[in-house]
Amino acid sequence: MGQTNRADQGITNLQEVLDALLHASPLAIIVVDSNGLVRIWNKSAERILGWSEEETTNRPVPVDSQLLLHSEGETDIRVQRKDGVPIDIEIRTAFWREREGHGTVAIFSETGRHRAAEQKLYDVEEELERVATREREARGEVRIERRFRELLEAAPDAIIEVDREGRIVLLNLVTEKLFGYRREELLGQPVELLVPGGVRDAHVRNREGYWNHPATRPMGGNLALEGCRKDGSRFPVEISLSPVRSEEGLRVTAVIRDISERKRAEDQLRAMRENYTRELELRNREVEQANQLKSEFLASMSHELRTPLHTVIGFAELLGEEIEGPLNEKQKRFLGHIHKDSMHLLELINDVLDLSKIEAGRLSIQREVFDVAKSVEEALASIRPGAAAKSITIETEVPVSTPVLADPMRFKQILYNLLSNAVKFTPERGTIRVEAKVRDPFVEICVIDTGIGIPDEQHEAIFDKFYQLGATTKGVREGTGLGLAITKALVEKHGGCIWVNSEPGKGSRFTFTIKIGKPE
Ligand code: ADP
Question: Is ligand 1 within 6 A of the CB of residue 425?
């Protein structure tokens, strides 16, 4: 009996345990019999669906019983709670045999809660990610900030940042070194601390003005800027400004370069250049003086030479006239040599005299208005014998009464020089032609020959003194190489110019201009 009792007791206890489990289960458990009436409705079912055990026991399932009881195996379904709110549940159903039919056991839990938990988890993860990103960004900013610092300190120039009120808010090591202040002494101080006393007020004004046109530009235009050290000493600087928009508002960055070294080098260079120029001027003056002396010497020498030469020529001519007695052929030939070479020497001396006068600036010209045609005829007259000797034809195309304003003697000298060269450098039976054309305010005069011509590269050099190109038509050098130099100087003294067009073998055309003569 006792055994049976114990067994009964045991069974009773097991029932209680099962009941307790049934109601403590976090899973909702519903048992429906073969008549469709609820037999078990545990606490979790009550919690999830809203209906109490009392409301449901021995009654049909109040919710979507079709779905609850006819879903098969393990599945997700949506049902309506007592308050009408739809909820998702994860359900597992099983049948149990009972008298004629079968009942159903449904065990389920709310998936929404998992979802909510999942969502929560997801939210937490997202938040964690956000925090991580923020941290990464912060680390990046720190890196940029560090990089900026490094750059700032590595710069060879002093760099300061100044706020809208002109207070120093940032500076690098070079600034400390350059101005002799410690960082703490500068931070928050007006930037004028670094400006020499005399220009501080102006600096404040200019600083205010900068905000009207905040642009990257050098400071002070062409002004020589100076910085002021803590000990009051000044040094030349070059400053470039640029506006910076920061979170704290508009600021300006000033890059300050100490240009003492450069200034020193520039000053040295300037001093050297000045010295050099002075030296050069001195030398030039010496050369000028020497030149002047040379010209004066030549002028007086030429004069001294001309006098005895005139005597030689005069007496040679007298002898040639045979008034003092007849000469034999040999004597006549000797006399001819003496006369010819004396004349050549006289020409040379005259040229040297002219040139030295020109170079000493002592050549004066007497201008008057006269007719070109007449002057051309006179110049031609003196070369006709030489031209005739070489059967050279002479042509002129000079309009009648073309007045020029010039020194008549010098004008003739110009023409004569060109014409005698033309004769000298034109072979037998050639042609020499003189043309004059009015090109207001000048008269353009050309001496044209069919002579040996001048190569292109010599067209300028022939006007240099003592320049001689080479052999004449006679195959020997004649003349002094001074003719064209004097001619050019004379033309220019008259305010005109001279040039040559020429081609070897074809001939030359020398053209010069001279002022037209206008009646007063
Ligand atoms: P030169 O006393 O030798 O004639 P110029 O100064 O008058 O000195 O001329 C310089 C040189 O220019 C001459 O030696 C000659 O070579 C060249 N030259 C001048 N005129 C002519 C010309 N009409 N035809 C060719 N060559 C010429």
Answer: yes
Does ligand 1 come within 6 angstroms of the Cβ of 427?
no
Return d(Cα 505, Cα 516) in angstroms, integer.
34
The answer, yes or no, to whether any atom of ligand 1 lies below 6 A from the CB of 422, is yes
Element (H, E) at 377: helix 372-389
Q: Is the CB of 225 under 6 A from ligand 1?
A: no
Asked whether residue 500 carries a pLDDT value surpassing 50, the answer given is: yes
Residue of 260, 246, 255, 258 whose CA lies nearest to 152: 255
pLDDT band at 388 (very low <50, low <70, confident <90, very high): very high
Q: Does any ligand 1 atom lie closer than 6 A to the CB of residue 210? A: no
> Above 70 in pLDDT, residue 65?
no
Determine which of 86-90, 238-242, 338-342, 368-372 has the lowest per-residue pLDDT on average. Answer: 86-90
User: Measured in angstroms, how far is the CA atom of residue 339 from the centroid of ligand 1?
Assistant: 24
Q: What is the mean pLDDT of residues 29-38?
A: 86
Name the least confident of 248-252, 385-389, 402-406, 437-441: 248-252
pLDDT for the residue 4 = 44
Short-list 399, 397, 393, 398, CA closest to 432: 393
Among protein residues, the one whose CA lies closest to atom 12 of ligand 1? 462
Structure tokens at 7: 């067994």
E strands, 135-195, are: 158-162, 168-171
Rg (CA), the chain: 62
Give tens-digit pLDDT for 184-195.
999 999 999 999
Can you list the alpha helix ranges (DSSP code H) found in 220-259?
Answer: none
Sign of the alpha-carbon dihedral angle for 418, 424, 426, 428: positive
Instruction: Indicate if ligand 1 lies below 6 Å from the C-beta of 463.
Output: no
Residue 451 CA: nearest ligand 1 atom is 24
| CA–centroid distance, residue 469 to ligand 1 (Å) | 7
Pairing mode of beta strands 249-258, 431-439: unpaired
Model pLDDT, residue 477: 52
How is 413-478 classified by DSSP, letter by letter?
Answer: HHHHHHHHHHHHTS-TT-EEEEEEEEETTEEEEEEEE-SS---GGGTTGGGSTT---S--TTSS--
Report the run of H or E that residue 253 belongs to, with start and end.
Answer: strand 249-258
Q: Ligand 1: does its nearest atom lie under 6 Å from the Cβ of 174? A: no
Ligand 1, atom nearest to 477 Cα? 3
Pocket probe for ligand 1: among 354, 452, 462, the residue whose CB has the most ligand atoms within 8 Å is 462
Establish whether residue 432 lines the binding site of ligand 1, counting it when its CB lies within 6 angstroms of any ligand atom. Answer: no
The pLDDT mean for the chain works out to 86
